[in-house]
């Protein structure tokens, strides 16, 4: 293995594109592929080589990364006789950055060619984190595989080894579980304050300097104030992750009403505005029903431009 392993990267969307570009800019030889010609062109422009297919990228890679929206996309790319998994060479490493279903990760790992190792490493930190190398990556896999993955993933942000294969997805989904609860709740808090005479800017300042503070209050609230609700992540993807969380929750054997309430809030927003609407429409639904506005004047730079 060279100091700069050959990288294959598939999935150049909202998160994958910036991550792949960071690896290319860091000097790794990167072969990339995406179904979107425009996304591929953006990555080639910063030094990557265009692959002809996902399988082509896998065949050339020492370290192969996938960053895809949903588990079924991973299955479509990796599985089957012509899938990327079969093209991986012995001694290579597949790192799946997708927030995925563990059963699928385990299945694909069991079908990998001899000598191919697998790490699941979903990410958090939004688009600005992907652009600026300030993500948090939750890695699951054996220690030797993690030690190989960590130098590559370190260019993307902080890497946390969560345990064996699959634990990265569990930790990522737990963090999303808490995010969904907070995101569903902040609109309720804003509405309660506004309806009872508190100016929104004052309320936000107080929340951020109190026990009510959260990533949602710090990072996401400006997307509500600006009125775009952060289209970099859709309600459909929120509901996808909530379904994966519910699968994990079956092992808890206790009622988890906060998570169920959050799922209901996002489902209600999706039924109102469409599954493709921006994630924080979960707050807009409260605005519309209550007849209040959560617009706040300010220089709210969208996360994908930071």
UniProtKB/TrEMBL annotation:
- Active-site positions, per UniProt? 172
- State the Gene Ontology terms under molecular function: NAD binding; NADP binding; oxidoreductase activity
Does this entry carry the keyword NAD? yes
Q: Where is the 6-phosphogluconate dehydrogenase NADP-binding domain?
A: 6-162
Would you say which domain of life the source belongs to?
Answer: Bacteria
Per the UniProt entry, the signal peptide is none
Q: Which residues form the 3-hydroxyisobutyrate dehydrogenase-like NAD-binding domain?
A: 166-282
Q: Which keywords annotate this record? A: NAD, Oxidoreductase
Kinase in keyword set: no
Please give the SUPFAM superfamilies that the UniProt record associates with this protein: 6-phosphogluconate dehydrogenase C-terminal domain-like, NAD(P)-binding Rossmann-fold domains
Q: Name one Pfam family in it.
A: NAD_binding_11
Question: What is the protein's name according to its record?
Answer: NAD(P)-dependent oxidoreductase
């Amino acid at each position: 293995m060279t100091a700069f392993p050959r990288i294959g990267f598939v999935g150049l969307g909202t998160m994958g594109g910036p991550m792949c570009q960071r690896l290319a800019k860091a000097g790794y030889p990167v072969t990339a592929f995406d179904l979107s010609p425009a996304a591929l062109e953006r990555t080639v422009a910063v030094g990557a080589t265009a692959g002809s297919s996902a399988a082509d990228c896998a065949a050339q890679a020492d370290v192969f990364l996938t960053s895809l929206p949903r588990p079924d996309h991973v299955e479509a790319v990796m599985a089957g006789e012509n899938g990327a998994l079969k093209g991986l060479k012995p001694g290579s490493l597949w790192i799946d950055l997708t927030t995925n279903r563990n059963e699928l990760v385990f299945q694909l790992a069991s079908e990998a060619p001899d000598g191919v190792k697998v790490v699941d490493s979903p990410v958090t930190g939004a688009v600005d984190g992907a652009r600026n190398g300030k993500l948090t990556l939750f890695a699951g896999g054996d220690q030797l595989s993690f030690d190989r993955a960590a130098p590559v993933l370190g260019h993307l942000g902080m890497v946390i080894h969560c345990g064996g294969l699959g634990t990265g997805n569990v930790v990522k989904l737990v963090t999303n579980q808490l995010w969904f609860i907070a995101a569903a709740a902040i609109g309720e808090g804003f509405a309660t304050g506004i309806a009872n005479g508190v100016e929104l800017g004052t309320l936000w300042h107080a929340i951020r300097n109190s026990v009510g503070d959260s990533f949602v209050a710090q990072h996401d609230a400006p997307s509500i104030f600006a009125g775009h609700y952060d289209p970099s992540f859709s309600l459909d993807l929120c509901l996808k992750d909530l379904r994966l969380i519910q699968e994990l929750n079956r092992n808890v054997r206790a009622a988890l009403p906060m998570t169920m309430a959050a799922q209901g809030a996002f489902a209600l927003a999706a039924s109102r505005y469409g599954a493709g609407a921006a994630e924080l429409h979960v707050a807009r639904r409260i605005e519309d029903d209550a007849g209040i506005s959560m617009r706040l004047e300010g220089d709210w730079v969208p996360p994908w431009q930071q």
